[in-house]
Structures are given as C-alpha cells and as structure tokens.
Design goal:
Strand content: 5-15%
Shape: globular
Strand order of the largest sheet: 8-7-6-9-10-11-12
Order of helices and strands: EHEHEHEHEHHHEHEEHEHEHEEH
Helix content: 25-40%
Number of helices: 12
Largest sheet: 7 strands, parallel
Number of domains: 2
Radius of gyration: 22 Å
C-alpha cells in the first residue's frame, strides 16, 4: 500500500512522529507540494493525505490507483467530493480535534482588543511607564466584557465551546444557526439581529456558497460602532475590503482574524493596514495538543479504512 502525505509540515513541523502511519504501508511524507509536483508525487498511490493541496477532478482522472483521500483537517473544500464519489474514492476528514484550541484563540483575540495586553506590554518595555508621571497609564480605552452581548454565527462544536466561555465572562450569548436546538437555554435569533445587537460577533460557520462574503458592507453597517468582529472560521466568509473600510472609518471598533481569503496573504491585502485589526497567521487549530489529536485520528482513519471499517467518511 503506497501512502503519500502531500503537505505534512503544518501538522508536524518536527515535534510529532509519522512512525504509526509509516507502519501501515510504503509511506512518503512531503513537507509541501507545489501544484506542478502533485501528479508525479501522487503517482501510484492508493492513499493520499492532504491539508491544503487541492485534489480536483482533473488530478483524480490521472491517478487511476487512488482509492482513499484523507484530509488533514475538518474542512474538505480542497477536494472535489463529487468527482471522488463518481470514482469510488473514499474521503475522510478529522472532526472536532481543535475545538478547545480555536475557542481559546477567539478569546485571545478578543481580550487583546478589549484590554490591550500586548500593546501595553510593548509600551512598557519601550519605557513609557518609566517616564510616566502617574502610577498607571493607558494607551487605549479598555473594555469590560461582563454584561456585553456576544453573538455567534454557526453553532457546531466550536461555536458551543465559545458560548460556554462567553457565559463564564458573564456575557449575554445570542446565536444564529441553520439548525437551532430546543430547550438548551440558548437565545436563537436571525442573522441581522446578531449583527445589530451584538457587542462582539464571532464567526464559526463553514465556507459555502451561502456563507461566502456573509460579512459584507451592509451587515457591517448594521453593527454598533463599538462592536468587535472575530473570525476564526474561513477567510472568504468576510469581505475584507468592506471590513477594512469599516475599521478605517470607525464604523466598528476592531477586528481579530486568524484566517484570510488568501493564505499567506499578498502584501496588498486591505486588512494588513487596517485600523485596530489584529491578525494571527491561521494558528488557532495548531496547538500541540490539537495536532497530537489530529495525527492520532489521521492514522486511525487510514487504519480503519484498510481494515474495511472506514470511519469519519465524508458523505
């Protein structure tokens, strides 16, 4: 069994082991694969594992031995699912491995915007406190979260984890989701209400044709000028030009994003120069604990498929 990992570096930059996967067959691990390298590297493989390398219909047609695609993530937008289904290729993913890690980063972004810990630390080390005539100084007006309204768009595992943390801060949680629950104590509202009433809006929806540019100029205009937007879902869910304009014009108070529409971003991405916009380089998922769970599940998915009892199959 030939197993090829097309882009393994982000999962395992050197602090994990591929040994369990290598025990399952003839396994080749590539740190990164450029589009022009795909067919040569994947040739003859029955199993391909990919994170961001795209596997489209054209590629599958040129890989007749391919029987299994394992996505090293939860989202499967890098694979042409219909083309795989037509060819009888099994696709698996890894659900819920990074829930707590992503929820943690949501509040790291929010707390930086609300309290300015990193900004104040920088100013202290630059000598501003030492030169201050007062025992306390502040670079920004800081914000108390208790009592504010926290709006969540998308209420899967991560959205629910974020809600629990928001409630621990004594924030009022409102939620928009396609599939509202029943009798779980959550206030379900329509999308426009989330944007109009929330002091913080946090995005946790998948990227679909319906959610692309869900945060657009019109919805940003509905937000309070004191509101904060957090995006740890997918970059294209937000119209980045509209968000940059809203930030620069003071239509909203700030934004914290871990994802962008193109990653890595080109230098002309409008958010890179936007006012009060904190950007982290798609790291919410990547704690050591989350990557260990991801690796374990990836190996388990391949092993189960080889044994004829496939799990985490994308339907």
């Amino acid at each position: 069994m030939k197993i090829v990992v097309l882009d393994g570096y982000t999962l395992n930059p050197g602090d994990l082991s591929w040994d369990e996967l290598k025990a399952l067959g003839d396994c080749i691990v590539h740190e990164r694969t450029a589009p022009g390298e795909l067919l040569e590297r994947a040739s003859g493989a029955q199993v391909l594992l990919t994170n961001k390398v795209t596997l489209d219909r054209e590629a599958m047609e040129q890989l007749p031995e391919l029987a299994y695609i394992g996505v090293l993530a939860t989202g499967i937008n890098v694979v042409d699912v219909e083309a795989a289904r037509e060819r009888g290729i099994v696709i698996t993913n890894v659900p819920a491995y990074s829930t707590d890690s992503v929820a943690q980063l949501v509040f790291a972004l929010l707390l930086e915007l609300a309290s300015g810990v990193g900004r104040h630390d920088t100013e202290v080390h630059a000598g501003k406190w030492s030169r201050s005539p007062d025992f306390s100084f502040s670079e920004i007006s800081t914000t108390e979260l208790a009592g504010l309204t926290f709006g969540i768009v998308g209420f899967g595992e991560i959205g629910r984890a974020v809600a629990r943390i928001a409630e621990a801060f004594r924030m009022k949680v409102i939620v928009h989701t396609r599939t509202p629950g029943k009798d779980d104590g959550i206030a379900y509202v329509d999308l426009e209400t989330v944007f109009a009433e929330s002091d913080v809006v946090s995005l946790h929806c998948p990227l679909t044709p319906e959610t692309r540019s869900l945060v657009n100029r019109d919805r940003l205009r509905r937000m309070k000028d004191t509101a904060i937007l957090i995006n740890t879902s997918r970059g294209p869910v937000v119209d980045e030009s509209a968000l940059a304009q809203a930030l620069n014009e003071g239509k909203i108070a700030g934004a914290g994003v871990d994802v962008l529409s193109v990653e890595p971003p080109p230098e002309d991405n409008p958010l890179l120069g936007a006012r009060n916009c904190i950007i982290t380089p798609h790291i919410a998922w990547a704690t050591l604990a989350a990557r260990e769970r991801l690796m374990d599940t990836v190996v388990g998915n391949v092993r189960a498929w080889m044994e004829g009892r496939a799990v985490n199959v994308v339907s």
